[in-house]
Amino acid sequence: MKQFKEYPATHSMSTAWFAIDDEGKVAILNFEDNGPIPQPASGSQTCCESLIKNGLDESGGFKYRSYTDEQALAMFRENPNGFEELFGNSEYFWGVVQIDISRTDEFLKIVEPLIHEKYSSIICYSKNLGIYSFTINKYKKVGATILAGLKSSGCIIKVLEEGYFDYDFIDDEEEQSRLSPIPFVVYNQEYGHPFGDLNKVYSPEMSQFTEGQLTDYERRTAIRIKGRFADLAHIQPAANSPFDTHEYLDRVDIDGQPYYKMRLTGNTDEQAYVYDSLTSGLKTDHSYCEKCPLYEKTHSSYRYASYVRGWEQGNHPTVATIGVDTFKFLVKHPELKQKTFETDIIQCGFSSSLYEENAKRAKEVGMENVLNHCKYYFEQVLKVFRPYILIIEAYNKDLLTKVYPHSGNSIEINGELYPFFMADAIDENLDQILEFANKPYRGKVIPKVLSVEEAERIGVKVER
Predict the structure, then answer these.
(1) Quick check: 416 and 425 in contact, CB under 8 A?
(2) 372, 379 Cβ separation under 8 angstroms
(3) Do residues 301 and 290 touch, judged by C-beta distance below 8 A?
(4) Is 305 exposed, middle or buried (0-12, 13-18, 19+ CB in 10 A)?
(5) Contact, 30 vs 167, CB < 8 A?
(6) Strand order in the sheet with 121-126
(7) How many CA atoms lie within 13 A of 157 on its CB side?
(8) In 3D, which of 31, 108, 401, 49 has the Cα closest to residue 409?
(9) Helix, coil or strand: residue 204
(10) Full 3-state SS string of 144-181
């Protein structure tokens, strides 16, 4: 049961993700804003209901969702208000209809102008059954014309209910009675849960949605879970994916690395220490930050959670991306996902509220001067993982080559020579990049999950 739920802001920050198990079945993981939340985040911060209706594509136009006939029929009931709902006097219609499939071409020709209308879309849930959803503003000329065409054509045989898919509130009896069945297992993260895992709250009676029904983009961004959803009462994605942490989780330092005590995926309450792969590296010294030109100007330290930042996208990374948009990079190049870690040449975690002030101060003292001090932290990250190559953005290249010796497409950092590639030239160099990426890992081996017993052997004080 949710506790201390805040409305409306907290719920609006919830995120939902597709997940795939070892059988290729698809579940929806529904996270609260309290985390831990997997990274890199999907392109849009979406919710469970939006995933079911739109998938990850919330753009306008015409698109297909690949539900089976059985699934589409189960999700949408006939609307008791029927044609009155569609052709009545309300300003908008957003909902689902079933058409005479022998007149599909006629229907699509009538609604075609919606494809070119801003904020409009048409979604086909079942071509075989003729189930479509669309949005119409009846008081705009184009909307009125479309509705008049649909009404006179008679190609719509049923108006369906849009479906209520907010499984975040399945523990509310009144809300639960309104829910429509879906072909996904649903896991919800309880608000304020001390371990941040997700509990199974729904299992479909119909045939379950499979990986093959996802779009290519959705498959690339889905979370892979070991095991079968049918067997897993709760899921701890942080144990097998990089994750965004939150302050309420209890962090401990183990061998200089940050870990969180969490409940693991499965059916028991087994707990373990999970490595924080988004703040990996070595613990930093605040006193060193006090000598930074930015600190001298602002009289405040902006170190990121007291750790050097090396955001791993998979175990044992061999490629460093520097200042690169991680999500776009990994979606476009999924073959590199398990091979990379992200870092920045300036390691400070600026407060968003002071970002403009810090940018102004950095300009005053000169970014080259800032880097000459802060490069210590950047070099520590490279020492931990010892990548074979760097992938960098143009503005970072300009700064790095002012501070470090370089020749051609190689740069020497802390006595190590690194070949580098520009982020906008990956495609033409992909074979060469993969050759480096697939070399054996040569950095520090950091256990991702430590049992309570293993942590005790290392010297962590564990309360039982």
Answers:
(1) no
(2) no
(3) yes
(4) middle
(5) yes
(6) 61-64, 121-126, 131-137, 92-99, 156-160
(7) 10
(8) 401
(9) coil
(10) HHHHHHHHHHCCEEEEECCCCCCHHHCCCHHHHHHCCC
| 210: β partners | 25
Residue 113 has pLDDT above 80, yes or no: yes
> What would the two tokens of residue 63 be?
């698109």
Q: In the structure encoding, which two tokens stand for residue 385, read together?
A: 């993982």
The number of C-alpha atoms within 13 Å of 249 and in the hemisphere containing its C-beta is: 25
d(CA 196, CA 455): 20
pLDDT of 122-149, one tens digit each?
899 999 999 999 888 777 778 888 888 9
The CA-CA-CA angle for residues 398, 403, 407, to 5°, reads: 70
Burial code (b: 16+ CB inside 10 Å, e: under 16) for 157-166 equals ebbbbbbebb
Could you give the C-alpha distances from 26 to 126, 208, 334, in angstroms and in order? 19, 7, 19
Q: Which of 148, 146, 151, 149 is nearest to 135 (CA)?
A: 146
Residue 426's φ and ψ, nearest 5 degrees, are: -70, -45
Structural contact between residues 65 and 85, judged by C-beta atoms closer than 8 angstroms: no
pTM: 0.82
**Cβ(310)–Cβ(280) under 8 Å?**
yes
Residue pair 273/460 in contact (Cβ under 8 Å)? The answer is yes
CA distance 444 to 437: 16
Name which of 134, 21, 42, 140 is nearest 91 in CA terms: 140
Give the CA distances from residue 275 to residues 70, 380, 448, in Å, rounded to whole numbers and listed in that order. Answer: 42, 18, 5
CA 239, distance to chain mean position in Å, is 16
Helix ranges (H only) for 63-123 are 69-75, 82-87, 104-115
User: Are 28 and 184 spatial neighbours (Cβ–Cβ below 8 Å)?
Assistant: yes
> Tokens 């605040």 map to which residue?
286
- Token pair recorded at residue 432: 């060469």
Q: Which two tokens stand for residue 205?
A: 């009676």
Better-scored residue on pLDDT, 77 or 281: 77
Domains belonging to the chain, first-starting first, are 9-46+171-247 (no CATH), 77-160 (3.30.70), 281-437 (3.40.470)
d(CA 267, CA 282): 34
Q: pLDDT at position 192, please?
A: 67
Over residues 331-347, mean pLDDT = 83
Q: What share of the chain is helix, strand, coil (3-state, %, to 5)?
A: 35, 25, 40
Please, is 152 exposed, middle or buried when counting C-beta atoms within 10 Å of its C-beta (0-12, 13-18, 19+)? exposed
